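Exercise 7. Predict the joint structure of the components listed below.
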Amino acid sequence: MADEGCHDDMAGEVLLEVQSLSAGYGNVEIVSGVSLKVSEGEMVALVGPNGAGKSTVLRGLAGVIRVFDGTVKFLGKEVTRHPLESLVRQGIGYIPQGDDTFPHLTVKENLEMGGYLLATNERRQAMSHVLDRWPQLVPMLKRRASTLSGGQQKMVALGRAMMLRPRLIMLDEPTAGLSDELTRMVITDIALGLARAGTSVLLVEQKARVALETADRAYVLVNGRVAMDAPATEILADESMAEVFLGGRSGAERAG
Amino acid sequence: MRVRRAQVRSVPVAIVLLSSLALLLAACGTGPSSSSGGTHKATPVTVGVVAPFTGNQAFIGTFFGAACSAAAYVVDQAGGVLGGKMTCAHVDNTGDPADAEPNVARAIATLSNFDLAVGLDSATAAVTVPLVENAHIPLVTLNGLSQYDNNTNQYFWRVEPDDTNQGAALAAYTLQRGLHNVAVVFANLGSSESEVSGTITGLKNLGVHTTITLNIPSDATSYASEVTRVISSHPQAIIMDGDPQTETTFFTQYKQLSNGHVPPLITTTDLLSTSFTSAMTKNLGASFVQHDIAFLGYYFSNNATAMSQYKNALEKLLPKKEAETDLTLSGLPTEYDGIIVAALAMTMAHSTNGPTYNADILKVSEGGPGAVVVHTYAAGLAALKAGKSIQYVGVDGAFHFNASHNVSGQFQVFDQTSSSGSSTIATVTPALVTQALG
Amino acid sequence: MSGLMEAIGFGLASGAVLSIGSVGLTVQFGVSGVFNLAYGSLLTVSAFIGYWLVEQGLNLWVAMVVVSVATGVLSLMLNRGIYVPLQRRGASPLTLIVATLYVATFIQYLVALIAGDQQVSFALQAGSERSFIGFRLTTLQIEFIALAVALMLAFHLLLTATKLGRALRATAGNRTLARACGIRTARVVDFTWLVTGMMCGAAGLALAATTVAFDFNLGSLFLFYMVAALLLGGAGHPYGAMLGAIVIGVSSQVAAFYGNPQLSDVVAFGIMVVILLVRPRGIFSHSGATSGLEA
Ligand SMILES: Nc1ncnc2c1ncn2[C@@H]1O[C@H](COP(=O)(O)OP(=O)(O)OP(=O)(O)O)[C@@H](O)[C@H]1O
Ligand SMILES: [Mg+2]
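Solution:
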């Protein structure tokens, strides 16, 4: 109890608050009654086995699929069913699972697209900011995104999303297809770094061990429902949870 | 002015109007009631109408049944054939050779006094023609198959000029006009293979130089390259048979690419419609349309006497609206004339027996020196009774059969003198058409 | 040789009109993912509206502006009213194509019902015929070539030098990602249907004016060529469609000049098949599958 209270004190104001969200595709409800929250400066993980509905939760939050029920609040304001482009304008960043760059555009053009909403000089500033953070991108600015390695593309996707300096960024499995080493870097360095630098992170991960080791708090999603909601280290220690997503743990180890 | 082939296109509309009448006509087809006097000695005549009466082409049977009934009515009004009553029997070939063979064979075996067959059906002609030929039954047919162009069947009489004839007539008219260099342009919609070959061989046989022969796709959006080729061949005139849209586009682009110098167009009466002439007037000018387009089509004497009798018969037999529709259909008057010719031939031969009267079909059609021209069956009977030879010139004019028993038609050339009407500017004789065909 | 140049000139003239139509079609597909077979029917509608306006005495170019706007609005309404709701309800790509086919047939016969099934014909002065560098073209043809070039340049500038162009490319490439950049993709799609509809309208009137005589089948026949140009260039590639249109226009005119005109389409489509055998995704394709609007 004391521990939990202490954590709440450490974190700042609540950024995202989700209550009993139900979402799905067409008339099929995939996730039900999902509640979660992300506070300022926090890194929160959403873990669970394949097909549990993790991406569906993010898509529901991002306003790209049908939301049946529940409320989503961002910075205290109700944003349920707001379309993605409007959420983006309010300070939420989103990197979908899979196709997360414009493959035929160069790295520079990808970043510029990320700064679509900015005026030219603002965009220039944002770009140098992003390149300061990820100087690895500088030598590949003129290359098409499709010609980059998986890890490099992740960097472009993150850079693209960070052009608008969102208050919250929702990452859907940014480590898919990456080596153990890269996975660890993306999660422990980049994601956590973002959270600590002022962009809170809601991270969906199948490679649960790394995510849980790094995140402040975590939610375990099983069959479209939240099965556990606790500080990440507690979940990691929980024996029953290890069973729930065996695939997740070994997945992280297999991934290399 | 009636326009022959353009009317064929109106058939689908007529199908809708008339398909419901099949039953009604079947009732009429069994014959109007005027039985003739000499009941004892006279034998009746049965005309077998070989056509589809069931299936999706049943409308053809409906039409041909109606024309036969009209002929039978006229014959019976005049006392029948040698005193015998004429009736029409429906021989259903369903449009399918598999059905046509047994059905026609059964009709030959079971119909009494089956002395004349009439029909139009290209799909079943291959089985029908040999059957009636072997049974020695004269056949008046309107099929358009080129396989009968050089026909040796004795009892076969084709009363509709085929497309080869029309093609040859286009060539013949070109010579008649004194032209020596013409371009030939055909579009795949609107002209048939046999028409094209008729024109090309016709021009060759008549010694008219063909500057270029082009077969163009219909309804394309640009004929610029084709037009350039025609222009650079320097024709005195262009023989073209296509659909109206293709000809309008082609000639307008011709005008654009030739600084307005467009040679005269020789085409068919298929195009003689207000939509074509108004489109051409807009783009090529009224003078071109009135003076430089010749429309060639099969000749209709449109003999007033024959026509009024045919019309009267249809009106007696059919409800007003249907009779009016039938009057606008081509092919039907031709079949009607064919039956009248056969009936006159029977009278002339004093026999309804095929082998006996068959040769007289030619005599009644051609007439010959001293023959009295008649336009009705009754007039023909009177002249024959008076011991004269006759020539029947009916609704469709006279039949001129060639050695293959195909009519080589007389053709007529029109121009569009005003927006309201057309007038005949030339006729092409069967002799010249025959010469063109070689 | 002079004949060849003339034929190439004619090919450029018909290719120009074709390119206006096929660029619209391919962009529509690239941005919204709808392969709209009703595009040809809208082209017919624009030809008839344009014909009617010109018959009323309106100047051809004024008529073209009116027709373009009208067709653009129709196109927008078609997408908003039918295709977007279908997409929103999760219709499969096949269902969508079939829907566009029904819409195409419906519009085509509606035109026949209203305007009749007879040919209509323009009474346009095509202008004097001019010769230069071996081409022989009418003033009207030259004007339409200029129109096509101007539209293509404008389109190129739109795509490469404007914010809207970037939004178009992003939406065509990945709609969710475009939205994640803050782009209002629904508006971009609306804009696309409006503009491609306007191109359809311009192509329809230009085609009708050069063809002179046409009927309610005009657009459905022309759709065949527009789709060919689109495939040749790679679906969704505006520059590919332009090039494809020129290839088809020129090869069919050259074939009509040297061979049996009846076979000119066979030659043009034969060339298309050969190119597609070498480059199955079209001349302008990348190795990836996404839209050429990003190129
Ligand atoms: N577009 C869609 N239409 C219909 N059903 C879908 C769609 N996308 C996902 N689903 C279904 O929703 C369920 C949850 O899928 P989701 O992608 O949210 O799982 P996930 O937890 O993200 O899995 P993974 O770890 O494999 O990414 C699955 O049963 C899936 O079949
Ligand atoms: Mg997922």
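Discussion. Residues A 25, 30, 48, 50-56, 97, 206 surround adenosine-5'-triphosphate (ligand 1) (CB under 6 Å).
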